[in-house]
Every structure is written in C-alpha cells, then in structure tokens.
Amino acid sequence: MNVRIDRSDGLRGRLTAPADKSISHRMAIFAAMADDPILITNFLEADDTLATLDAIAAVGALVERRSEGVMVRGTGLRNAREPSGTIDVGNAGTLIRLLPGWLAGQDGSSFKFDGDASIRRRPIDRIAEPLQKMGAKFEATDGRFAPFTLHGGHLQGIDYELPVASAQVKSAICLAA
C-alpha cells in the first residue's frame, strides 16, 4: 500500500470514542501537538496511558485531569521543550514508539528515553530507521534498544515501505510528517 500524507490547514471539531488504550495514547500526543487546549473525554487511565500524560508534560504540555476528562494545553507542533531529565515510559511500548515520531521534528532539541526492563529488551530500530531517513538522529544502546537519545532534526518527506506491518511504526511516521 502506498500512502501520501500532505499537511493540512488544521482540524477543528469534536470526536467521541469509547475508552481505548491505543486511542488514549494517540489523543494525548495529538493534544500535546496542538496550539489550542483540547479536552480528551473517555481517556483510559492505565499505567501506560498515564506514562504518556507524564511524557507530554515533560516536553511542555500542560496536563490537567478533570472529572469530565483530561485537559491538555499543547506546545504546538514544533515547540516541544527539552525535558530536564529522561522521559520514563515505564512499560509503555506504544509511547516509546509514537512520541519519538513527533519529537523527531523538534530541530535542535534532544530527548532521552528509557523504560523498565521489558522496554529495554524491545528494539526501537523499526521507528529509528524511517525517522533517521527523514532527518532525526538516534543514539541507542547496542544501536537498537532503550535507553536512547533522539536528536530532532529538520525533517524531510521520504518514500518508505515497512518491512513488517506495524500500526505503531506507521503512527510514528505520520506524527513526524
């Protein structure tokens, strides 16, 4: 399948979806990328998704948990800040594969990622390869594991065929586009 993704002029509206871990990760990251405040309703509160809220807060988003949902005041697309320490993803495999997609486009900024013992055994080269081809740089343990440092760059579009189907890798590439 060949897909072309072009920039849009912005999206506005309301979307209601059932609580879902995969969607909760993505919505939190999308909200962090936004210029306007976003209220996420039906946010699934689990260790992994709470790690995502902590991670987006570490890069500058303001996160407020309310009775009606999670309010996120994002940094804007290219205004994430370098955190003072390491972004700890805990055991959130989705987080460690998606957030670098957005942060890869933060030209001149660096982000350190780490997680628990399980995360340190999961390779990140499937996201590192396309993001590096786009212009980001990775310094990873043994070249492919956490902990790793992502150096954001001025990203360029690429033609890329996934060697193995992966929604997380596709999402990381889309977040970088």
How many distinct beta strands? 7
Task: Assign the CATH architecture.
Answer: Alpha-beta prism
Number of domains: 1
Q: Enumerate the spans where pLDDT stays under 50 for 5 or more consecutive residues.
A: none
The span between the termini is 17 Å
Classified in CATH, the superfamily is Enolpyruvate transferase domain
* Main beta sheet strand tally, sense and closure: 4 strands, mixed
What name is given to the CATH topology? Answer: UDP-n-acetylglucosamine1-carboxyvinyl-transferase, Chain
**In which range does the helix fraction lie?**
25-40%
Beta-strand percentage range? 15-25%
Average pLDDT, rounded to a whole number, is: 94
Shape: globular
Q: What's the helix count? A: 5
Order of helices and strands: HEHEEEHEHEEH
The CATH class designation is: Alpha Beta
Cα-based radius of gyration, to the nearest Å: 15 Å
| Strand order, largest beta sheet | 4-5-7-6
Structural class: alpha+beta
Provide a brief overview of the structure.
It contains five helices and seven strands; from the N terminus they run H-E-H-E-E-E-H-E-H-E-E-H. It is an alpha+beta fold and 177 residues long.
Structure description:
- This protein is of the alpha+beta class.
- The chain has one domain: Enolpyruvate transferase domain (UDP-n-acetylglucosamine1-carboxyvinyl-transferase, Chain), CATH 3.65.10.
- Helices cover 32% and strands 18% of the residues.
- The protein contains 5 helices and 7 strands; from the N terminus they run αβαβββαβαββα.
- The strands form 2 sheets. Strands 4-5-7-6 form a 4-stranded mixed sheet. The protein has a 3-stranded antiparallel sheet with strand order 1-3-2, with helices on one face.
- A hairpin with a 2-residue loop joins β2 (62-66) and β3.
- α2 runs parallel beside α3, α3 packs parallel to α5 and α4 packs parallel to α5 (167-176).
- The model has no long low-confidence stretch (mean pLDDT 94).
